[in-house]
Model the fold of this input.
Amino acid sequence: MAEIDRLQLGEDVRQQLGMNLEASSHRFDAIDPDFSAEVDKILSAGCFGDVWARPGLDLKTRRLLTIAIVAALGRERQLRAHLAGALQQGITAEEIRETLVHVIPYAGFPAGLTGLELFAETLKAR
Done:
């Protein structure tokens, strides 16, 4: 697939997920605006254009998988973003909660409980 197609496909997926593309494209401006734009292109084309746009799983399933993975890895910043994004996407609190409970036997209580705590904070902030 051509680079421009991957980029456009990724941006389409990000829009379907309700992501703010303008804010994302300036996320690293404090480091370097050109670098920030390049990282955003890599994210759109590579992550969302190559992976999230693949057939076989819907965006809801991909979001819940992502929540489980980032919780298991202890990536709190990304977990917060995906928890808020999941709610914005229309995924129910019960589905998110059960995804985080499912993390516990596979990644351990600290990972699952931290995920649940961050989820409670996300709900409270809504």
User: Anything to note?
Assistant: The chain is about 80% helix and 0% strand. The chain has a mean pLDDT of 93.
